[in-house]
Every structure is written in C-alpha cells, then in structure tokens.
Design goal:
It contains nine helices and no strands. The chain is an all-alpha fold. The chain has one domain.
Length: 126
C-alpha cells in the first residue's frame, strides 16, 4: 500500500494541476466513495490485521487494477473502486509528509514502508 502511495504522492508533486481522481485514475464518483468510506476501509484493514499480512491474495483484492475492491461484503463490493489499497497508501504517505515537513521527497522514497506508516500519524477521514 505504501509503495503505491509513494507513486501517487510523486504525482502530487509532478502534476499538481490534475485532480486527485485523475492522479489515481478514478472517476469523481469513485474518489468520493473512497473519501466518504475512508474510516470504514481503515477499520476493515485494522480489524482483520491486513496491514502486515503476507497473504498473497491481498494485492489482487486491494492493490491491483480491478473493477472493484474485494472486501467480500455484498453491501460494498460492487460500490467500491478497485485499488482501494493504493488510495489508503496515498493517504498514509500524505499524512507522513504533512507531519514531517523536514523530510525531503527523496528521503521519503528511500524510507521503508513500515517507517513511513509508523511515523505518519495517519487518521482516516470520518
């Protein structure tokens, strides 16, 4: 997730004139869904201990391109955009950079995902 977040944060720096939806290749509706459901997505990941999981199926469910993310919850699977893990990773990297203004982009790129996550102070939108 954080690796994908780094790539999307790079787009923040290089193409700031593009919308967030354009940067992540979502429609405005998909981006709005991700923003509106950020806290529930985060809760899902935390409760099921997916953040540090090595389950080989997780990239297919939440990182790789797909028509929707696979929470295996009928009420949201068809509504959720694909690659929701990339979106959450992007928000973690943004939070990290916001809370660590003395860290350069290059320094952040060389940091481990775990360090970024642990020092991001990420709190999902409610």
């Amino acid at each position: 997730m954080v690796s994908a977040g780094k790539r999307l944060y790079f787009k923040d720096l290089m193409i700031p004139f593009k919308t967030d939806a354009e940067k992540i290749n979502y429609t405005e509706v998909q981006l709005q869904w991700a923003q509106n459901n950020e806290a529930q997505i985060w809760e899902y990941f935390v409760e099921r201990e997916l953040l540090y999981s090595s389950d080989s199926k997780l990239p297919g469910r939440f990182i790789n391109p797909a028509p929707f993310s696979k929470f295996y919850l009928a009420e949201i699977d068809n509504e959720s955009p694909g690659r929701i893990g990339q979106y959450i990773g992007w928000q973690i990297v943004r939070a990290y950079m916001d809370h660590n203004p003395d860290i350069s982009f290059k320094e952040m790129l060389n940091m481990s995902a775990e360090d970024i996550f642990n020092h991001s102070k990420f709190k999902p939108r409610k």
